């Protein structure tokens, strides 16, 4: 089956969108799905999430705890045994209390945390405020990255998918560049 | 920043946010913005040992001390402050119950006007909180944003370009912002329509909580509505959404109030006047009954059914000062619940008698 959006690539994702109060089902390729999936900002997308519609954002609003993390526990690389080398917290401990041990836990448990964050927030990455200046760090690169993400969100909102696609490529390059200095607590 | 050993609230009648001056303050009591922030290179409080917790408090306190706030702030190290003072701070909405009842190094830094407070070592290393009267989430955000930026010049926040501000609980990661409004919805509760507010909130990914009540069954006419999403949204997205949704609840409450006035004015007047009379005459009164009566009086004041010398500011203040820790402070020694109910009735009679 061909993707119903671009009409060229093969459809691999079954996507449900809430439009004007009705559900619209579409078969999409990975590329078009990445552009179309709700970023958690538009009200209809949020509503669909809240109603438990099968969107990319997952069903319902989640609370953190043993139940909310259920899926993450059965991920292929078994994050249960992962330990944060900075603070000593195990992923199993996080699952039982729902609280992380230090800022670096976000990197240590990244594989397991990402689906959980998407379930809770609908979004996967930060588009909000960036510290203007750190007491000891240059935040310029981080600021640029977050600004790029915001542009991408706007392009998707305006259904300017061509611009969105090029912004996504730019964003991917920028993220790769910054991931070296990522982590939030190497001091 | 001045250091204080405890909370000296004598003479102060409560935060500026109680004045009832903001937009729609007949229904919206207050707007609040809370920002969760942590220091780079430290464990979160839950995982830190006592030495690290002490080091975090020192570091945050020093950073706050160097920060140029628009007014001189006060700092209370809560580990050494009398527990009753901490409870008074909770009742004045300056700190959370969790911070008051925790142990070890922790504190609060607040502005004398009581509309800005920074909790140190609650769940996160810092929780910056701004309160405003009425529906003013936008100005509350501006103030919180400004305070946060000032503080960030002196403290190195844990922040990642991917996840934003890194917080102890993953529900706060991203903006670290919780925006909330406290609503007074007596007509919707009275006509059993309030469930619809809960349903509408849930559909918009907004959390609706009964205030003062426990769990999902609210025991009063007060509700808090807040955002649940922090990642993948900007702060202004969240605030715009709330500023769009909350007026719909306000209109709904107003419409039902109007309908009640038209269909059975006598019954509504009776309810408000009886509540006013009870508060002016009671010799002993529980906090639950006080809350219920004050809610009816507040409704009566807003509908112009009660004497005009009784203002929203006075009613708002009574909510705060009739709570247990405030009453305990007025007494010279320990006070049991029975004596507290008598003290509460005396306070209400005195305060309401003074406006005649």
Number of helices of chain A: 8
Structure class of chain B: alpha+beta
CATH superfamily of the largest domain in chain B: Glutamine synthetase/guanido kinase, catalytic domain
Return the CATH architecture of the largest domain in chain B: 2-Layer Sandwich
Beta-strand percent range of chain A: 5-15%
Mean pLDDT over the full residue set of chain A: 70
Explain the overall architecture.
The complex is a heterodimer of chains A (187) and B (356). Chain A is mainly alpha-helical and 187 residues long. Chain A has eight helices and two strands, in the order E-E-H-H-H-H-H-H-H-H. Chain A has a two-stranded antiparallel ribbon. The N and C termini of chain A lie far apart (51 Å). Mean pLDDT of chain A is 70; it is low at 18-23, 38-76 and 183-187. Chain B has 356 residues and is of the alpha+beta class. Chain B has two domains: 2-256, Creatine Kinase, Chain A, domain 2; 265-353. Chain B has helices at residues 50-66, 83-91, 97-101, 137-152, 186-190, 194-203, 235-281, 287-302, 312-321, 324-330, 337-353; strands at residues 2-3, 28-37, 74-77, 107-110, 116-120, 126-133, 159-160, 164-165, 177-184, 206-210, 222-227. Chain B has a nine-stranded mixed sheet, covered by helices on one side. Chain B has a two-stranded antiparallel sheet with strand order 7-8. The model of chain B is unreliable at 213-218 (pLDDT under 50). Chains A and B meet through helix 2, helix 6 and helix 7 of A and helix 4, strand 7, strand 8 and helix 7 of B.
């Amino acid at each position: 089956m061909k993707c119903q959006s671009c009409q060229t690539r093969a459809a691999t994702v079954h996507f449900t969108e809430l439009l004007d109060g009705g559900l619209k089902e579409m078969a999409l390729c990975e590329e078009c799905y990445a552009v179309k999936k709700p970023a958690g900002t538009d009200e209809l997308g949020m509503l669909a999430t809240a109603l438990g519609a099968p969107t990319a954002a997952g069903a319902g609003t989640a609370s953190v705890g043993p139940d909310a993390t259920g899926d993450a526990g059965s991920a292929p690389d078994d994050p249960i045994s992962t330990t944060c080398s900075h603070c000593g917290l195990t992923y199993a401990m996080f699952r039982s209390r729902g609280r992380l041990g230090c800022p670096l836990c976000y990197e240590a448990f990244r594989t397991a945390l990402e689906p959980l964050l998407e379930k809770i927030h609908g979004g996967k990455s930060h588009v909000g405020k960036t510290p203007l200046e750190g007491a000891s760090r240059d935040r310029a690169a981080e600021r640029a990255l977050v600004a790029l993400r915001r542009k991408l969100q706007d392009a998707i909102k305006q259904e300017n998918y061509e611009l969105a696609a090029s912004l996504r490529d730019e964003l991917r390059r920028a993220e790769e560049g910054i991931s070296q200095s990522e982590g939030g607590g190497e001091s | 920043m001045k250091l204080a050993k405890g909370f000296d609230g004598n003479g102060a009648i409560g935060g500026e946010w109680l004045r009832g001056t903001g937009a729609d303050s007949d229904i919206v009591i207050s707007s609040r913005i809370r920002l969760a922030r942590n220091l780079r290179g430290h464990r979160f409080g839950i995982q830190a040992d006592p030495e690290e917790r002490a080091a975090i408090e020192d570091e945050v306190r020093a950073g706050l001390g160097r920060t140029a706030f628009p007014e001189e702030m006060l700092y209370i190290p809560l580990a050494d402050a009398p527990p009753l003072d901490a409870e008074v701070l909770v009742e004045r909405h300056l700190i959370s119950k969790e911070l008051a009842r925790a142990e070890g190094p922790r504190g609060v830094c607040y502005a004398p006007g009581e509309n800005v407070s920074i909790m140190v070592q609650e769940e996160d290393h810092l929780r910056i909180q701004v309160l405003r009267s009425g529906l003013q989430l936008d100005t509350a955000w501006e103030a919180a944003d400004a305070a946060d930026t000032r503080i960030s010049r002196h403290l190195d926040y844990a922040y990642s370009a991917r996840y934003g501000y890194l917080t102890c609980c993953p529900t706060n990661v991203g903006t670290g912002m919780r925006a909330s409004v406290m609503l007074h919805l007596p007509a919707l509760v009275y006509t059993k329509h309030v469930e619809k507010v809960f349903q509408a909130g849930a559909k918009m990914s907004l959390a609706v909580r009964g205030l003062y009540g426990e769990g999902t069954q609210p025991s009063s006419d007060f509700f808090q509505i807040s955002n649940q999403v922090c990642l993948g949204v900007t702060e202004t997205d969240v605030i715009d959404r709330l500023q769009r949704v909350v007026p719909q609840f306000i209109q709904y409450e107003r419409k039902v109030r109007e309908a009640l006035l038209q269909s059975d004015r006598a019954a509504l007047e009776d309810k408000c006047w009886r509540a006013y009379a009870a508060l002016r005459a009671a010799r002993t009164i529980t906090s639950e009954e006080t809350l219920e009566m004050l809610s009816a009086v507040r409704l009566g004041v807003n509908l112009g059914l009660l004497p005009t010398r009784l203002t929203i500011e006075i009613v708002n203040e009574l909510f705060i000062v009739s709570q247990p820790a405030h009453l305990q402070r007025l007494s010279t020694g320990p006070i049991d619940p029975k004596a507290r109910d008598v003290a509460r009735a005396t306070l209400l009679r005195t305060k309401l008698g003074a406006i005649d």
